[in-house]
Amino acid sequence: MTATRTARERARAELTQEIKDEARRQLAEVGAHGLSLRAVARELGMVSSALYRYFPSRDRLLTDLIVDAYNAIGEAAENADPGEGDPKERWLAIWQGTRDWARAHPHEYALIYGSPIPGYAAPQDTVVPASRVALALVKVLTQTELRAEGDVPPELRAQAETLTKALGLVAGPETVARLLMAWTQLFGAISFDLFGQYVGSVDPADAFFAHSAKRMAEFVGL
Prior knowledge:
Low-confidence stretches: none
Mean pLDDT: 89
Number of strands: 0
Structural class: mainly alpha
Shape: elongated
Helix content: 55-70%
Largest sheet: none
């Protein structure tokens, strides 16, 4: 009985992966807004009712794809960090690793950092995976003596102090504010590059991205 259940569980996992792989393929063709469970089932030779046993709704499938994408880009950022050595070089490596993943998986990147999907609201399941890149950067900062100084408005100070406790970061509110600015710059630069916003200005954007990464490292106090 145990062996039978294990085989069934393995078969279910394999088919679940096939469904998600086909859904990712369709993302490249029709985008997240056009993703359809019926179309996925048809391409896999399944009836829709059978697919619904794996994903009861389009939103459930989207959530799984979003979580997978966040985890994948987070893993790329974490793996890019050598874990030791010059903090600034580690910061730059994380930035580059994040960008490399995005450029290699543009449709999955668009799913998590592109336009909102009409009618879809991301559940709490996505919060932790979405934090992985930021936490990789925070890890560098927690092992570094930061030099950022300055003051922030009272409302932002309260938000920064709450975030500081949540991240376990020993830093003042100005450093946390700068980290948030750098995080925004990282994904803003990647999005501008992938979505064609740099055409006619800094295209290709390699040099600009590398320069931005260095300046943001200095900005946060590295």
